[in-house]
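Suppose a colleague, Dr. K., hands you the sequence of a protein chain of 391 amino acids and asks what its three-dimensional shape might be. Before reaching for any lab equipment, you can write down a predicted structure in token form. Begin with the sequence itself:
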Amino acid sequence: MRKLFSGLSLFVLLALVVGGCAAPAAAPAAEAPAAEAAATEAPAEEAPAAEAAACTPGEGSIAVLLPDSASSARWENDDRRYFEEAFGAAGVEFSIVNAEGDAANQQTQAEQALTNGAKVILLVNLDSGSGAAIIAKAKEAGARVIDYDRLTIDTASAADVYVSFDNVAVGRAMGETLEPLIDAIGKSPTRVVQLNGSPTDNNATLFREGYFSVAQPHYDDGSWELVADQAVPQWDNQQALVIFEQILTDAGEAGVDAVFAANDGLANSVISALKARNLSPVPVSGQDATVAGMQNVLSGWQSMSVYKPIKAEAEAAAAAAVALLNCEDAGALAEGNLINNGMVDVPFIKLTPVAVTADNLAETVIADGFRTWDELCVGEYEQYCPPADQR
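The predicted structure, expressed as tokens, is then:
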């Protein structure tokens, strides 16, 4: 079955073999929020002279710093394996560690990686303050840095390149998919909750900006009512459950009609709270196309998830890391796309997210090999899947 993103994957892997800097296709330009600027052709600001360290091609290793395993299953189940495959194919020395939600631990891991000879740090920060400290330490040691998936904001000592998805578009996909479902409820006003990600994660801000941009006209005209707009510290699913249970309690008999949940973990917390009260499904968004998220979509408890093709993202970041290790300009892979981190412009390798519903699940995450029917169609979820001979 044809893979949705096989062209990008092969293209990037070919770049690794020949040592070139060909770029993955950039997403169409999106509306530019303050923290996620539209692409321009202007060059990024040059790094301070103190950070312009000498580089020996191929010297040292690449260190991947993952954030946790609790906020999303993707980090250990998906990103790790794709990095292992990409760096293994490239024949470079690498290490992958996980901070398990501890920012101080991640800083220690970064320092240890630099001590062990890492010349490229591929960072998924836990917050921008600790991320900026890691970037500064790496630059002092003559290493290059990639911000992966999350941008480290408000620092002049910025990453050399940022690899992620158009995160406002991620939120907008949630808004645009739920919008007709919410309108179809037929209540006036329809009561909506926004259950946002961690306030320390810049991505969570961008996701909210995306779905709020779709919802705001409805709030303004009174057809929708914003019942709660609540952030979940550290994307903690247990805290999300407690928060949403309190929202339901406060809502009383008026109830909650729809929820913008910023990822599949938060969506699952919403669903658990609804089930515990014997309430019916309501429109609920999600993100990451996790196994649990796809099962909730199949069973009708979750309306959609946003699939961010992680294999393509990891391979694009791996290509950038190998380019930096070889003293090449990884910014060329961004094809002129820039993002402002609040202080300086950073080259942005930008990928496109995909909204997934029950109607296109087979043609997206299944066809792409990101998820399989075997892992989704187990236990109570078997009844929602195609017959075994049609999978």
